[in-house]
Amino acid sequence: DTSVDVVIPTTDDTTDEPNEDFTVDGTVTSGNTSNTDPSGTVTIEDNDGAPTVSISDVTVTEGDDATVTVSLDNPSSVDTVVDIVTTTGTAGTDDYTEVTTTVTIPAGDTSVDVVIPTTDDTTDEPNEDFTVDGTVTSGNTSNTDPSGTVTIEDNDGAPTVTISDVTVTEGDDATVTVSLDNPSSVDTVVDI
Q1: pLDDT tens digits along 48-97
Q2: Residue 76: how many other CB atoms lie within 10 Å
């Protein structure tokens, strides 16, 4: 015979990575050959696609922090750097703290959190939302512009309307105050 096969197992992982190689070295310990130190290279071709980056959708009660997760669907062999910016929707900048930051998902990891404070107010209003937009600036991903939505749930009850009691001398004008016990996000019309 002129050859024999040597089987070297490789490991199938889920990490997107460049092709890798290693050397198989031999030393002739018996027999008659013209060389005594043969060498070969094994190249392992990666079979994992580039990861997809996403930003989670989150619902929080106003006044609580929104913890938004920036994640990869499978690990990468290189750091993934994502610029993050919040964008106003029905929620204005008085409803949350604007965030502009850069996050890094380290090689081998799959997620990192971004914390966005929301503001607790006393105004009865519908639920509001804003977006968290990302731009991949470094790393290898199948997409480069993930986006998530933060919904802020209102925690204020509907306002109560009151009309003040007054006492006046006959012949004088009676002025009564119509008021709400807390603000409303919509006009309140009261027929008198």
Answers
A1: 889 999 999 999 999 999 999 999 999 999 999 999 999 999 999 999 99
A2: 23
* Residue appearing with tokens 């499978």: 74
Q: Are 179 and 161 in contact (CB under 8 A)?
A: yes
- Distance CA(129)–CA(96), nearest Å, equals 10
Q: Burial, 55: exposed, middle or buried (Cβ in 10 Å; 0-12, 13-18, 19+)?
A: buried
**Please, which pLDDT band fits residue 104 given cuts at 50, 70 and 90?**
very high
Backbone dihedral angles phi then psi of residue 182, each to the nearest 5 degrees: -150, 155
Checking DSSP bridges between strand 147-153 and strand 100-105, what pairing results, if any? unpaired
Residue written as token pair 């006009």: 187
How many other C-beta atoms are found inside a 10 Å radius of the C-beta of residue 5? 4
